[in-house]
Amino acid sequence: MRTHTSVWSPDALQAFVTGSPCYAAPGGVVSARLLRRRGDPHEALDTLVAGGALQRVRRGWYRLPVADDDVVTAVAAGGVLTCVSALAFHGAWVPRGDIPHVRPARETMRLDAGVHQCSIARRLPAPVVAVDPVALSLRAASNCLSREYLVAAVDSALDSGLIRRQDVADALWWAPNRGHESLAETDWAQSGTESLLRRRLKGLRIGVRVQVAIDGVGRVDLLVGDRLVIEADSVAHHSGPDAYRSDRRRDLLLTTLGYLVLRVSWEQVIYEWPAVLQAIRRIVDAGEHRWPR
Ligand SMILES: [Zn+2]
Known about the structure:
Low-confidence stretches: none
CATH architecture of the domain at 192-285: 3-Layer(aba) Sandwich
Radius of gyration: 24 Å
Bound molecules: zinc ion
Strand content: 15-25%
Structural class: alpha+beta
Largest sheet: 4 strands, mixed
């Protein structure tokens, strides 16, 4: 006869949730189903909940008193965090969103209001972890994001080392909206703004190279022709007085070397694109993006 002895003392369980790697209890939320793989957690969970060390989010899911708001909202709504929200949680760039994107725990389930229900369109086992991994999240995002945003999210996930190129290919191979095609459009980019600029300029057949090394300056984000440098400013990458001073030094040096420098913000790419394009076009049409002969 087999006897089941649980490894879950209250102390062991609390240590697991508070100190575990993010793939087990991401954002401070854990499922009883995951814990059950190492023995019955029932009594330890009851003890921790009674003592206030854990709180029940919904049946079978528990949170620390301090937990990630989006993760808790997703689980409370009846699913797990996925898609753009999970990508942001893992540290990838995604366009700013308003409400958490959530994958229902069961395919037939309707989620509570206040979250966006994402479609994965393939049968998956019920989730045991509160945040979907990067590959699955990219797959969900191929349904929720426009192509240019998906490319920017993939650029960022690759650049941040969150996923390997082959794993992106596997994840997007069966994605909706021909998501697999976005892989061919990915490139080296250090910000979402940069990805969007590159893709839009290439789409308009304006020749652009990314992350070009210039002697004495370092790498510039984008180079159109020989001498039009476009730097994609983002709050995340260009905040603080040191970054501000460093950017100004680079601009001065580039101008001294004969380059034209255009700094473009995320807001300008999204909300003022015609004006940005007009500025780039004027330079290109006048041939000023080439060295004078
Ligand atoms: Zn989504």
